[in-house]
Write a structure and sequence with these properties.
single chain; about 400 residues; alpha+beta; Beta-lactamase; 7-stranded antiparallel β-sheet; 3-stranded antiparallel β-sheet; 12 strands; about 35% helix
């Protein structure tokens, strides 16, 4: 009887996720994306995991697929920066110019590590610093050198503009410059994060001929004049040698879940202490109070919606907060919920109060606020399926 009751409970829980499954499948059928993988867990135990549609033409989505994390990669990089701070290599208030010589030119001299982490460093939104082209997006040292020539868009600490590629790439080079073993960025993350957590499929950069790699794709509904150049960057230049701390990590959904366990447990997971609980708790706050994310100004103006609060933590993502505004965590997530977003295709959310984790990875790029709105809907449907 006990086994029968357990089976019935599992079946009932699966049935409650039918609305989440239908929503994701409906997007695929509507041509919004080609395929996706989702995972929902509570108390660290997976309640629902499913793959939908195609990861690539003629290839069904699978749990072994290696998705490009896009800006979700920033959470991986942020964890390594916080680890370095715990080790005394630098502090949140260390000036970037002291760690990245030359950075302080053109009005950026007061920018700190703290400013890079919460997108208030004075840098503009950019994937690569001029004059470099998108073909150099994965050349970390070249980007770090070019950063010194970028003029500040505002006085560091006074405004918030999501920096896309350049801010977290500066952090990646700082990790290289301060590494006592002389390792590359890719080696640092593999040896200090991926391997300890058992994320053995994960890497920054991925061989172009890896059969598990999910190519970035734009559906007909999501193409624009810049699509060919973007696809070339994602699918040709992001090879195994490319290092983009802000956005070119590759991982399976199971590996992302292992990383989420690190954040869910405040810097500790699988017997590994990556970040001290004290620093994690400080980082897990809104460190842009009262600021708006000016990277969205054009789109929110065009759509006639209020400016979006920045809500940046120091963890490579956002905190939910209390306001009723569009956000990637969803309306029903707790105020302290943390969410990391990979532009156009990926995202995860951790609700600490309700102890729920939701991960969404997709094949098919959806740009701008439409992706945040998709994540909001997915997270709300996942939360609706769980009884607390």
């Amino acid at each position: 009887m006990e086994n029968l009751n357990s089976t019935n409970k599992a079946s009932e829980m699966q049935d409650k996720f039918i609305y989440l499954d239908r929503a994701i499948q409906a997007d695929i059928e509507a041509g919004e994306n080609y395929g996706a993988s989702v995972l929902v867990a509570r108390n660290g135990k997976v309640l629902h995991q499913r793959n939908y549609g195609d990861a690539a033409p003629g290839r069904k989505a699978s749990g072994d697929d290696l998705y490009l994390m896009m800006s979700l990669s920033k959470a991986f990089t942020a964890s390594m920066v916080l680890k370095a701070i715990d080790e005394g290599k630098f502090t949140l208030d260390t000036r970037v110019d002291d760690l990245l010589p030359g950075f302080g030119a053109n009005g950026k001299q007061t920018a700190t590590v703290f400013h890079l982490l919460n997108h208030t460093s004075g840098l503009p939104f950019a994937l690569v610093p001029p004059p470099l082209g998108l073909d150099k997006a994965g050349n970390l040292s070249a980007k770090a050198t070019a950063l010194s020539h970028i003029p500040a868009s505002y006085m560091p600490g006074t405004r918030c503009i999501y920096t896309g590629g350049v801010g977290y790439d500066a952090l990646g080079q700082i990790l290289v410059n301060t590494d006592l073993k002389g390792r590359t960025f890719r080696q640092i993350v593999r040896e200090d994060l991926f391997d300890p957590l058992g994320m053995h499929s994960s890497s920054f950069g991925c061989s172009l001929d890896n059969q598990r790699r999910v190519p970035v794709s734009f559906t007909q509904k999501n193409t624009h004049p810049g699509t060919p150049a973007m696809l070339a960057m994602f699918n040709q230049h992001f090879d195994e040698n490319a290092e983009l701390p802000s956005g070119n990590a590759y991982a399976t959904i199971d590996d992302v879940f292992r990383f989420c366990e690190l954040y869910r447990n405040r810097g500790n997971a699988f017997g590994q202490r990556i970040i001290s609980p004290a620093l994690f708790d400080y980082a897990h706050q809104d460190h842009t109070p009262g600021m708006i994310n000016e990277a969205w100004t054009s789109e929110v103006t065009e759509r006639g919606i209020p400016p979006l609060p920045a809500s940046f933590t120091l963890l490579g993502g956002y905190i939910r907060g209390k306001r009723h505004v569009p956000n990637s965590a969803g309306y029903t997530a707790s105020p302290g919920a943390f969410t990391a977003v990979g532009g156009g295709s990926t995202g995860f959310m951790i609700d600490y109060e309700k102890d729920v984790t939701v991960i969404f990875l997709s094949s098919g790029f959806r740009e701008g606020l439409r992706h945040l709105e998709r994540l909001k809907r997915i997270n709300d449907l996942a939360m609706a399926a769980i009884d607390y």
